[in-house]
Specification:
Layout: E1 2-6, H1 7-18, E2 32-38, E3 41-47, E4 51-58, E5 60-63, E6 65-70, H2 71-80, E7 86-92, E8 97-102, E9 105-112, E10 127-132, H3 133-141, E11 158-166, E12 169-177, E13 181-188, E14 199-202, H4 203-210, E15 219-224, E16 228-232, E17 236-241, E18 260-265, H5 266-276, E19 286-292, E20 295-302, E21 306-313, E22 321-326, H6 327-334, E23 341-346, E24 353-357, E25 360-367
Antiparallel strand pairs: 1-5, 1-7, 2-3, 2-6, 3-4, 4-17, 6-9, 7-8, 8-9, 10-15, 11-12, 11-14, 12-13, 13-25, 15-16, 16-17, 18-23, 19-20, 19-22, 20-21, 23-24, 24-25
Helix pairs in contact: 1-2, 5-6
């Protein structure tokens, strides 16, 4: 194999591929990136056996071929090469080395046989549709904060993506919960997505997917089967196994009868919660909300460090209420709000609280209160 490739294109491709590679590997080949050159492009493939990323970059291919090289080392070398450099990659099968040359720099990296590299089996997909990058970004960005990190409840370690009945017909919905808070985000159902099976996209795949979604103009081709999900652009393909488990019936957790309504400026609220939580060294410290007659008092009492209190003007006309929440959870939910106002719907100080963005019903959050 012998190719020439522009350093910027090479760095983008290798950076995305190597981020999938696990740093601690018992199988040496999984630390490598597979480089395949053919026609007028080079493909860079990396996997951890659960996720596979394939990145394509234009290249001048003098001799087609394939090899594998350590992903992290290769990425570090390319990153440190000068901007605009033309990088030459030559694989010498006999010596088991990949030669990397750019200007006066020359490296020879150890390779492993491409035959040893595991390629994820292609799957028959039950549904294939396309969605724009901003739509998918909103679905996953607004729900991923609620993914559980508790390994014993593995079926909560991802975002549940499925077709559901919304206010006005079928929607594509993403839900995540860890038992303390829940996020439910809807968007219009894309054409051809009707027969899609519900799948739980793992946390790592959600993080890797985020890197595909930065370009607002990109259309993402989404393919879903019972066991895998694939997101593809012309340059990148991300394939991930889905979590083999049943997501719980989240609809039972979303309160229906909460009538006490508080409306507050979302940015002011988030900043105020952040300020009062500063006195507490514990991230899980409760923030107390005292609400009555268009006034909200936020307070934190940390006996070892001190206490803090802040008052906000809000819209609230129901009977007075005192309720406490984990400061971190409250802040994470408040930071999801894109609209000007956050609307909280309470029932009592011990029942789950519902939050939404203004009058928008397509994003709904639930948070469990704490004793204060």
């Amino acid at each position: 194999m012998k190719i020439s490739i522009e350093r910027g294109a090479l760095l983008r491709a290798v950076a995305r591929a190597q981020s999938v590679v696990e740093r601690r590997n018992t199988i040496p080949i999984l630390a490598n990136v597979l480089i395949e050159a053919e026609g007028d492009e080079a493909m860079f493939r990396a996997t951890d056996l659960d996720i596979e990323v394939v990145d394509r970059a234009p290249a001048k291919v003098e001799r087609a071929g394939a090899t594998t090289v350590n992903a992290v080392t290769f990425h570090e070398i390319v990153r440190k090469l000068p901007d605009g450099a033309l990088v030459s990659l030559t694989d010498d099968g006999a010596s088991g080395r990949l030669s990397v040359e750019a200007g006066r720099s020359h490296f020879a990296l150890a390779t492993l046989p491409r035959q040893d590299f595991p390629v994820m089996a292609t799957s028959e997909y039950a549904a294939e549709f396309s969605a724009s990058a901003p739509v998918l970004r909103r679905l996953f960005d607004k729900s991923k904060f609620a993914i559980s990190t508790e390994e014993t409840r593995y079926y909560l370690n991802g975002v549940y993506m499925h077709v559901a009945e919304g206010e006005e017909g079928q929607v594509l919905r993403c839900v995540a919960t860890d038992g303390h808070r829940l996020a439910r985000i809807d968007t219009d159902l894309p054409a051809q997505a009707e027969g899609m099976p519900g799948v739980i996209v793992p946390r790592k795949a959600v993080g890797e997917l985020r890197k595909l979604l930065d370009d607002d103009e990109t259309e993402i081709a989404v393919s879903v089967s019972e066991t895998k999900i694939r997101f593809a652009t012309p340059e990148i393909t991300l394939t991930s196994k889905v979590i083999d488990g049943t997501f719980p019936d989240y609809t039972r957790v979303i309160p229906q009868g909460n009538t006490r309504k508080l409306e507050v400026d979302a940015a002011d609220f988030a900043r105020a919660v952040d300020r009062v939580a500063t006195v507490s060294s514990e991230r899980s410290r409760a923030v107390k909300m005292q609400i009555e007659d268009d006034k909200l008092v936020l307070s934190v009492n940390a006996p070892d460090a001190g206490n803090a209190e802040e008052e906000l003007v809000v819209a609230y006309s129901d009977e007075p209420l005192e309720i406490g929440f984990n400061a971190k959870y409250l802040l994470e939910i408040a930071n999801q709000v894109d609209r000007e106002n956050a609307v909280f719907l309470f029932n009592s100080s011990s029942d789950p609280t519902l939050m939404r963005e203004g009058g928008d019903m397509s994003a709904v959050y639930v948070v469990m209160p704490m004793r204060v």
